[in-house]
């Protein structure tokens, strides 16, 4: 066991393969941290969007100006007696102006335009009967249309789910790229040390011993590089702008709570990838040198 622990010392270090392994493991792990952060953040965003939109709905009221207040009152009365509706209120002119401002500017005269009035409702945990509510609105407030945000919620949740899948797929591609690069580095190191391998065989070293020498060296290099890459990636994620500073664009991007421990799993995984890639490459190369 003592000899196995120091088996890598019989292999002379080769500079370019050492740096290639360290750099590849570090760079790929750095990218994997951001891919992991993206995947987890997209999952949280999907849950938040689904929850926020699922608990709210909007009723759009289109009626002549002289009947608008009557229609609004009728809608509010219907909602007040609808099981599953926690609260309901009509949006003010200022609130509707704020909703339209991104498209029409801040000076839109909402009060003088035939803009439909909006009533916002918040449902209880058990929800409400949307179809039954539509029928009641059609009977008591013909100008009212219920929008339960289904057509908005579904694309958002699907998009976030695909973004999460893209993050996991990126991690798999990063792992495959790391394995390929480390395999190339291991092959180069084995080829560069062909004479050393021949001498080791002459003195009775078995192929398994030689393989352990290369595997240990490349696994430790990959572990060291991946640890540095994971640390740099975590620092980079921590330095991302907050939601306020980024205007909400980066809301939720990053790790939260125990999620900060997940990047710490990447260096051992990188070492495992290096172990498997180097072991496979070493046995294959030794057969070629036989």
Automatic annotation (TrEMBL):
- Keyword list, A-Z: Cell cycle, Cell division, Membrane, Transmembrane, Transmembrane helix
What InterPro entries is this protein classified in? FtsX
Single GO BP term: cell division
Q: Which residues cross the membrane?
A: 18-41, 163-186, 218-240, 260-278
Annotated Gene Ontology cellular component terms: cell division site; membrane
Indicate what this protein is called per its UniProt record. Answer: Cell division protein FtsX
- Its source organism is Aliigemmobacter aestuarii
Q: What is the lineage of its organism?
A: Bacteria, Pseudomonadati, Pseudomonadota, Alphaproteobacteria, Rhodobacterales
């Amino acid at each position: 066991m003592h000899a196995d622990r120091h088996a890598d010392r019989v292999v002379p270090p080769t500079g370019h393969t050492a740096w290639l392994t360290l750099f590849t493991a570090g760079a790929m792990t750095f990218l994997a941290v951001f891919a992991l952060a993206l995947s987890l953040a997209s999952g949280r965003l999907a849950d938040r969007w689904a929850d926020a939109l699922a608990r709210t709905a909007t009723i759009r009221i289109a009626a002549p100006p002289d009947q608008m207040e009557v229609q609004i009152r009728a809608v509010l009365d219907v909602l007040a007696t609808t099981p599953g509706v926690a609260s309901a209120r009509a949006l003010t002119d200022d609130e509707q102006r704020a909703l339209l401002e991104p498209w029409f500017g801040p000076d839109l005269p909402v009060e003088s335009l035939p803009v439909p009035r909006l009533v916002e409702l918040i449902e209880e945990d058990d929800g409400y009967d949307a179809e039954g509510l539509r029928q009641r609105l059609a009977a008591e407030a013909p100008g009212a249309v219920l929008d339960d945000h289904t057509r908005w919620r579904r694309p958002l949740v699907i998009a976030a789910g695909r973004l999460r899948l893209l993050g996991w797929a990126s991690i798999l591609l990063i792992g495959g790229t790391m394995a390929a690069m480390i395999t190339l580095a291991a092959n180069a190191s084995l080829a560069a040390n062909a004479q050393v391998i021949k001498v080791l065989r002459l003195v009775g070293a078995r192929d398994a011993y030689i393989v352990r020498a290369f595997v240990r060296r490349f696994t430790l290099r990959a572990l060291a590089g991946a640890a540095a890459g994971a640390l740099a990636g975590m620092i980079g994620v921590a330095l991302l702008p907050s939601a306020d500073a980024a205007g909400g664009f980066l809301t939720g991007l990053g790790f939260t709570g125990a999620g900060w421990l997940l990047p710490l799993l990447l260096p051992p995984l990188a070492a495992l990838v290096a172990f498997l890639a180097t072991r496979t490459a070493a046995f294959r190369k030794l057969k070629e040198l036989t």
